[in-house]
Amino acid sequence: MMHRPAALLLAAACAFAPFAAQAEPAVTIPPPAAEASAPTAGLETAVLAGGCFWGIQAVYQHVKGVTNAVSGYAGGAQKDADYSAVSSGRSGHAESVQVSFDPRQVSYGKILQIYFSVAHDPTQLNRQGPDSGTQYRSEIFPQSEAQRKTAQDYIAQLDAAHAFKRPIVTKTGTMKAAFFAAEGYHQDYATKHPEQPYITINDAPKVVNLKTMFPALWRDPPVTVAQAAKGN
């Protein structure tokens, strides 16, 4: 996949794939059976990969308690943290989203429940919807030992309950991987281009599913990177 200027992205997808593909179906799943107590002050950060970052970002921008959701790259080296290199599938990076959230409003466990339920399909190996390659893998990059344990215990819980028709393939072993923000034209992409075919087919349904399945956590309008940069 070649790097494209911002203007051309209006007609491009996260990958050059058929628009006939459909969004991953949402799945109703229980929350984690147990997780660490939330801190009494301060924000937490989660770094999640699950296909094209446009859709993951769009979902979390509508979650109450999230203060920012930034599209970017995780799992590889800084020198390869650009769209052209990552799109080659050889950089080691996954398209990821760094989610900053207030754990007093939304817990890390709830962040993960949304991730597994509506944000992507955790049973697809190195692909999501129309996009394929290791850069579209399902991976949680724990930012602490507590996050690692919560994620691994939750995956074991969901697999034991046969919550999905196939086993979960989400990776959790890369601790505190460096996160690199993606190029500016990728930020707030779904919000800026709601009628772009890739967004309407693959990502907009995820946002609708969030509103339907997690009404207590729904927020509208979304919190955008542009707003967060201004401190709004």
Short description:
By secondary structure, the chain is an alpha+beta fold.
Biggest sheet architecture:
5 strands, antiparallel
Counted up, domains total: 1
How would you name the CATH homologous superfamily? Answer: Peptide methionine sulphoxide reductase MsrA
Mean pLDDT: 91
User: Which sequence of SSEs, written as H and E, runs from N to C?
Assistant: EHEHEHEEEHEHHH
Total beta-strand segments: 7
Strand line-up in the sheet with most strands = 6-1-3-2-7
CATH topology: Peptide Methionine Sulfoxide Reductase, Chain A
Shape: globular
The assigned CATH architecture is: 2-Layer Sandwich
Q: Please state roughly what percent of the residues sit in beta strands, choosing from under 5%, 5-15%, 15-25%, 25-35%, 35-45% or over 45%.
A: 15-25%
Description:
- The chain is of the alpha+beta class and 232 residues long.
- It has helices at residues 53-60, 83-87, 108-119, 145-160, 189-192, 197-213, 225-230; strands at residues 44-50, 66-74, 94-101, 127-128, 131-132, 138-141, 179-181.
- The strands form 2 sheets. It has a 5-stranded antiparallel beta sheet, with helices on one face. It has a two-stranded antiparallel sheet with strand order 4-5.
- Helix 1 crosses helix 3 (108-119) and helix 1 runs parallel beside helix 6 (197-213).
- The longest helix has 17 residues, at 197-213.
- The protein is globular and about 40 Å long.
- The model is unreliable at 1-13 (pLDDT under 50).
